[in-house]
């Protein structure tokens, strides 16, 4: 924090400008810190460690070859469509009946051109059933196709020990080790698996209260509330928090659950460029200056929706700048830590700890238990008033069934392990190991010459392949 | 032993060609059609180059040398 009585570095008019802003904290404008320098020592940058993100562009020949590959696919697609239309080949896609040809069309042939001709050829690589726990290696069911991916059949055999590169099991808590799951089995026998009620009716068990207290302690906030499904946490609670007359500023690349929640709420939505604080600041300024679209009244609430780690790019949100912007313009911040909770930060407490900030800076902390904790469900944490409001007004609390007890116990045991409450340092070891693995993996892939996106510390590693032939 | 390595290397090159031109995903009859067309077009390009490029180069050389050097060339 800058000292207002410090000696200025010689620019008198800058000093005058800074005085009103100093009380709301440090913030950056256009990448330059406008702080008072005392004897040549600046008041520090916002980031305590370097923030390196890569989004490199592919070389030209790769782009040309990618287009060439798609061109070949498209030409053959037209050829096959022609053959299908003229009856030279059997049609395998959904089509309307002859009698319904005069009605409004249900299936437009050209809309699904790429699905039919390009995706079908390579779709045997996705959506394969697995038959073991998704640890570092797992078992796949063997699946073959006789007619080039239009239909599949299972041979009955399983492929063992396939290396797992794609599941969200960041800390390895989705395990089958009997010792680890002892408490879960006890709870399963005590409570069973079904709750058959919503939170507000008869669905709040003592397990939920224990879990909520533990989550609040883990995150360092006053209170928390847990829900049965992570996607539903976002889509059902954002409409409870904002309504008509409010403004939602959401990042370009937000997850579908956030977008759905924003659209369901009925508020005005404006998009800012991905992780771009200048774009966000411009939107905030316009919102405050011009107000609501036609009446020019002030907005009731301005809320910024961001994610901790974006699951498709692997980039981490620029939290310090965001918090200083939010404090300056008096907006609310909703942070979705689905991928970052348990995976980043020195002790696994998420993006807030990674940047060394206090959880009071973020108004609504949201996260899911699906990724790092090996369970299912989501939580919303924050001040006690907020959580009490959500307990009465959230759509999920009124209509959706609550989390089932064995899953709650799995989260409790994972969280206790992470916090060290079970007496071992295994949780901390796992977090450290994840950090080391992430950095090693990214470094080696980079050395091998692949194009990797995202922040150096994020466990989500997107590898770009570019050519459609290589994807399959 | 060496022959096997050479064969493996050629097969790897063929595999890279299939991946790059996205013909790896095509069905066998489509692949043969694509190979036929590609080979035909390449053959035509090579033939055209073989027949016409030396003549073009020679004419261009004569044209430029006439501008820069050979003003003393007379038709008498």
From TrEMBL, chain A:
The chain crosses the membrane at residues 58-79. It holds the Pfam family Aminotran_1_2. It is an enzyme of class 2 (transferase). It is found in: Endoplasmic reticulum; Membrane. One of its GO terms (cellular component) is serine palmitoyltransferase complex. Its cofactor is pyridoxal 5'-phosphate. Residues 160-464 form the Aminotransferase class I/classII large domain. Its EC number is 2.3.1.50. GO terms for molecular function: pyridoxal phosphate binding; serine C-palmitoyltransferase activity. Keywords: Acyltransferase, Endoplasmic reticulum, Lipid metabolism, Membrane, Pyridoxal phosphate, Sphingolipid metabolism, Transferase, Transmembrane, Transmembrane helix. Pathway: Lipid metabolism; sphingolipid metabolism; Sphingolipid metabolism. GO terms for biological process: ceramide biosynthetic process; sphingosine biosynthetic process. Belongs to the class-II pyridoxal-phosphate-dependent aminotransferase family. This is serine C-palmitoyltransferase. The lineage of its organism: Eukaryota, Metazoa, Chordata, Craniata, Vertebrata.
UniProtKB/TrEMBL annotation, chain B:
InterPro entries: Ser_palmitoyltrfase_ssu-like (IPR024512). This is Serine palmitoyltransferase small subunit B. Belongs to the SPTSS family. SPTSSB subfamily. Signal peptide: none annotated. The lineage of its organism: Eukaryota, Metazoa, Chordata, Craniata, Vertebrata. Component of the serine palmitoyltransferase multisubunit enzyme (SPT) that catalyzes the initial and rate-limiting step in sphingolipid biosynthesis by condensing L-serine and activated acyl-CoA (most commonly palmitoyl-CoA) to form long-chain bases. The SPT complex is composed of SPTLC1, SPTLC2 or SPTLC3 and SPTSSA or SPTSSB. Within this complex, the heterodimer consisting of SPTLC1 and SPTLC2/SPTLC3 forms the catalytic core. Within the SPT complex, SPTSSB stimulates the catalytic activity and plays a role in substrate specificity. Pathway: Lipid metabolism; sphingolipid metabolism; Sphingolipid metabolism. GO terms for biological process: ceramide biosynthetic process; endoplasmic reticulum organization. Component of the serine palmitoyltransferase (SPT) complex, which is composed of SPTLC1, SPTLC2 or SPTLC3 and SPTSSA or SPTSSB. The heterodimer consisting of SPTLC1 and SPTLC2/SPTLC3 forms the catalytic core of the enzyme, while SPTSSA or SPTSSB subunits determine substrate specificity. SPT also interacts with ORMDL proteins, especially ORMDL3, which negatively regulate SPT activity in the presence of ceramides. It is a multi-pass membrane protein. Keywords: Endoplasmic reticulum, Lipid metabolism, Membrane, Sphingolipid metabolism, Transferase, Transmembrane, Transmembrane helix. One of its GO terms (cellular component) is serine palmitoyltransferase complex. It holds the Pfam family SPT_ssu-like. The chain crosses the membrane at residues 9-26, 32-53. One of its GO terms (molecular function) is serine C-palmitoyltransferase activity. It is found in: Endoplasmic reticulum membrane.
């Amino acid at each position: 924090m800058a000292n207002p009585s410090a000696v200025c570095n010689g620019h008198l008019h800058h000093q005058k400008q800074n005085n009103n802003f100093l009380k709301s904290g440090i913030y950056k404008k256009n990448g330059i810190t406008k702080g008072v320098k005392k004897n040549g020592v600046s008041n520090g940058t916002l980031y305590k460690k370097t923030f390196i993100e890569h989004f490199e562009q592919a070389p030209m020949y790769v782009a040309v070859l990618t287009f060439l590959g798609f061109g070949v696919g498209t030409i053959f697609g037209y050829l096959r469509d022609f053959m299908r239309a003229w009856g030279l080949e059997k049609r395998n896609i959904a089509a309307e009946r002859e009698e319904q040809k005069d009605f409004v069309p249900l299936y437009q042939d050209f809309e699904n051109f790429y699905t039919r001709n390009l995706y079908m050829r390579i779709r045997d690589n996705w959506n394969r059933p697995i038959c073991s726990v998704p640890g570092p290696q797992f078992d796949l069911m063997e699946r073959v196709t006789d007619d080039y991916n239009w239909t599949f059949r299972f041979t009955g055999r399983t492929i063992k020990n396939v290396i797992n590169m794609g599941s969200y099991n960041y800390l390895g808590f989705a395990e089958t080790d009997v010792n680890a799951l002892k408490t879960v089995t006890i709870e399963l026998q005590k409570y069973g698996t079904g709750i058959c009620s919503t939170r507000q009716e008869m669905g709040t068990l003592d397990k939920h209260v224990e879990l909520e207290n533990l989550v609040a302690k883990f995150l360092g906030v006053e209170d928390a509330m847990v829900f049965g499904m992570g996607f539903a946490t976002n889509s059902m609670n954002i409409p409870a928090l904002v309504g008509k007359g409010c403004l939602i500023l959401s990042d370009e690349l937000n997850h579908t659950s956030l977008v759905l929640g924003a659209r369901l709420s009925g508020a005005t939505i404006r998009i800012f460029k991905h992780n771009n604080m200048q774009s966000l600041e411009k939107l905030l300024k316009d919102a405050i200056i011009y107000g609501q679209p036609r009446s020019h009244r002030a907005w009731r609430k301005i809320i910024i929706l961001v994610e901790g780690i974006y699951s498709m790019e692997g980039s981490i949100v620029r939290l310090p700048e965001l918090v200083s912007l939010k404090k300056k313009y008096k907006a609310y911040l909703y942070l979705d830590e689905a991928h970052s909770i348990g995976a980043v930060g020195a002790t696994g407490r998420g993006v807030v700890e990674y940047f060394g900030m206090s959880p009071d800076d973020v108004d609504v902390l949201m996260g899911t238990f699906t990724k790092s904790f090996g369970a299912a469900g989501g939580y919303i944490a924050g001040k006690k008033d907020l959580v009490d409001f959500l307990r009465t007004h959230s759509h999920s609390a009124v209509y959706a069934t609550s989390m089932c007890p064995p899953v709650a116990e799995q989260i409790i045991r994972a969280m206790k392990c992470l916090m060290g409450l079970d007496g071992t340092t295994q949780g901390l070891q796992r977090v450290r190991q994840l950090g080391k693995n992430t950095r090693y993996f990214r470094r080696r892939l980079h050395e091998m010459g692949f194009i990797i996106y995202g922040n150096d510390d994020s466990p989500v590693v997107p590898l770009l392949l570019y050519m459609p032939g290589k994807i399959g | 032993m060496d022959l096997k390595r050479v064969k493996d290397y050629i097969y790897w090159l063929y595999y890279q060609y299939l991946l790059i031109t996205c013909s790896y995903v095509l069905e066998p009859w489509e692949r043969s059609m694509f190979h036929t067309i590609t080979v035909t077009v390449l053959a035509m390009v090579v033939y055209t180059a073989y027949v016409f490029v030396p003549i073009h180069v020679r004419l261009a050389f004569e044209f430029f040398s006439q501008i820069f050097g050979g003003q003393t060339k007379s038709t008498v």
